[in-house]
Amino acid sequence: MRHVCFTVMAVLVISAGCSKDNGKTGPENMAGTFVLEYYSGAECSGTIESDGSWVINNNELQWCSVSPLSGDAGVTTITLTSTSLNEGLKERMGVLSIEGQAGTDSYYVIQRGSPGIALLSDQYVLMAHDTELRIPVEGNMTLTEDMISSMPEWVGFEGFSVSDSTLLDDGVTVSEYVTTEMIFSVEEHSGTETREGKVVLNVMDEEYELALLQMMPVSADFSRRFYRNSAMIRFTGVYCGYCPWMSEGLERAKEQVPDRIVSINFHAKSYSDPKYNLVWEGSREVEDFYRVPSYPYANFNNIAQVQNAAPDVLADVISELALEAEKYYPSESGIMAVSRCSENGDISLNVIVASEAEEDFSMSVWILEDGLQYPQTGASEDYVHDYVVRGTLSEDFIGGDALPVFEDGMSVAHLNGELPSSVEDRRNAYLVIVVMRPGAPDTQSVTLAKYGDYGSIIDNVAVCPLNGMVDFRYE
Fold this sequence. Notes:
Layout: E1 3-5, E2 12-17, E3 30-36, E4 43-50, E5 54-57, E6 64-67, E7 70-71, E8 74-82, E9 92-100, E10 103-111, E11 117-119, E12 123-126, E13 131-139, E14 148-150, E15 155-162, E16 178-186, E17 195-203, E18 206-214, E19 230-236, H1 243-256, E20 261-267, H2 283-290, E21 297-300, E22 304-306, H3 311-328, E23 334-341, E24 346-354, E25 362-369, E26 372-374, E27 383-385, E28 388-392, E29 401-402, E30 410-418, E31 429-438, E32 450-451, E33 456-465, E34 468-470
Parallel strand pairs: 3-10, 12-18, 19-20
Antiparallel strand pairs: 1-2, 2-4, 4-8, 5-7, 5-9, 6-8, 9-10, 11-13, 13-16, 14-17, 15-16, 17-18, 19-21, 21-22, 22-32, 23-24, 23-34, 24-30, 25-28, 25-29, 25-31, 26-27, 31-33
């Protein structure tokens, strides 16, 4: 049991256990801190010396009991007991208030996290050249080299890099939760096939495996133009009677310019028929960015708006925009990607973007699903909805996450996430990778399109299966 003393308001003097103090003070309205260990039944104690009666308000602490909850003048020992295990790795916090005749003093109550670690990813894809690999591990354990029980012969351990500790909300207690990077050196791979290995980490009798895939030498042919795919970002809803027109126009355009257009559909929430909702929770933010006035509505490559019209008219507008992009906005980047989706829905995606252009590229990755049958106003009761956005792997899903630094014309990005629970059939789910570059349209050749500056141009798009890969493509 830990013991540290605080002094509080005139009517109360508490000698409280379990507080850490590093010489700093917390917020002015907080009098101190109690710290409990992570397990259920952990205790802290302190004494109250009061000139009058007092009462404890413990409403915020569902995972902690206090005894006694009230008392009279004199010296009283109070005990805090955790009533449940903190299963998380991070500390959890609450506030305890002691009300006396002269006022109220409040105290932070902190329960430490359960000892352990968490891997941000269990798979890493590496380029063929010799490189440094940094594997981040989050948790509250101090890692040591002897915890690494095995690794491939082409990988060498170099050391650890530990993030600075942070103070919790009380301003005095140091969090035990940190990020530790395990640093490895990886030898160059000159073989003709991808080689595989694993790093095994043993922590508290738990074994963690990290799969390493080092690709055979990969190079992009910069003497050729990368294949130009375009993105049509569409906004629709099951209650929108005119939306099937745009869907039909898009499909006709895909026939006119095969294998050039990737559709990404955001659905509006249906308040009248909530059971038919195909909406993704972030759709409204995307709508606001594109300033969507009504449905249906579409944006092509962050270059031009597409307004609704008869399907044959729309087909011509969309196909002309795709041909315009191929001619006047050729791709400066190529996309290669490998993805894995485990049985429990954990997604690991490794993307290689190749470019000789000195651009500040960014990337968004979307999770889409096809083949969803729901009623559609203006169509049928069993209308098939394709290209439906179910989620994202990106933090900045509108502007895109900045790509890692390019080396020899290549940038390698690792993304992780979970298959959304809204996905009805994972066999119909896939990933769409969108690479953007700064810019605004300088050629406006399609008469019925409304051009605008959205801060970036979609430079290229790739479709990757949940368990599969997509390679660089060229014109």
